[in-house]
Every structure is written in C-alpha cells, then in structure tokens.
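A favour, since you know our structure tokens better than I do. Would you make up a two-line entry for one protein for me to read? Write everything out right here, beneath this request.
=====
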Amino acid sequence: MTQDSSPTSPEQDNANLARQMKLGMRQWASGVSVIAARDEQGEPHAMTASSLTSVSDAPPSLLVCVNTKARMAGIVGIVGAQFSVNLLGSQHQVVSNACATPDMYDKRFTIGGWDTSATPKLMDAPAVFECEVAEVVTYGTHLVVIGRIHNVVLHDQSSTPLCYWNGGYQSLVVE
C-alpha cells in the first residue's frame, strides 16, 4: 500500500483542520438557547444558538457567538442593542428547530409561547436573560457578543434542559 505524499496547500490544510474541528466539537454536549431581538424597524428576530457562556457576575454578563452571515449579526452586532437569551427545556425542540430553519424564519414567533411586546422572550423558558450588548468582537466568521444582563426571568426550574450533541438533540439523564 502506498501513501500519497504530495504536498498540500495552506488552504487545504486550513479546510481540513476546520472539518476536523467541527467533528471534534460535535463531541461537546451543549445546552440549546434562542437569541431574540428586534431590529431597527421593530421587527422581532430569533435564532437558535448553542455557543453561550457566562462571562462574569460583576457585572452580570454572558457571551454569545453569532455567524456574521446571520440576520441576527446586524442586530446584536451593535453596542447598546437589546436582546434576550432564552434557555430551552426539552419541551422546546420544535422552537429550536423553527429558529434554526431558514424556511421557518417568518413563522418563528408563532411556535411557542412568545411575549413580543418588547424584547422578545419565550414565556415558558426555564431561564431568560435580558441583555444589552456591551461589547462586540469580530473573530473569523463570527461575532463574539458580550451582553450585560439587566434582568433574569426564571420559570420552571424542574424542566429538563434541551441538549445537543453529535449533530442531534439528546436527553439529559439525571441520576
């Protein structure tokens, strides 16, 4: 058996590394959230996100990553913009799918119990963080958005979180 020893270009190396990174990151189990906001015309927008982490409790803040090609990037990419992060329970898989599917864009707020009177928020999410964009950093294909939390709404704390792992939704087993 012979092995191909032809040199690869830096572009091929980067593309291969990106594929390997995506495969590796599929092994990282994550909770699922929906980021929601209003654009400058007052229209509500929402997108599913699993790239979320707390940053600090002084000041209370969190970090979300948004692809620069997503509609949401033009909304939460502005310092001072208001947005919510809605942590999803296992009962919200249909909400997650609607907010992740381009064909469902115009129907996103018809699925689930949304309050769209101000910054949109899912009324039965286990937790909702209402935030203001404090800082935005562009890195590669994504915006790293730091949101300063100004309100937390807690609902049913006994619900099981919606989890995503290896390309699909998974159930969390509590022992």
Observations:
- The helical segments are 10-25, 73-76, 93-100.
- The mean pLDDT is 91.
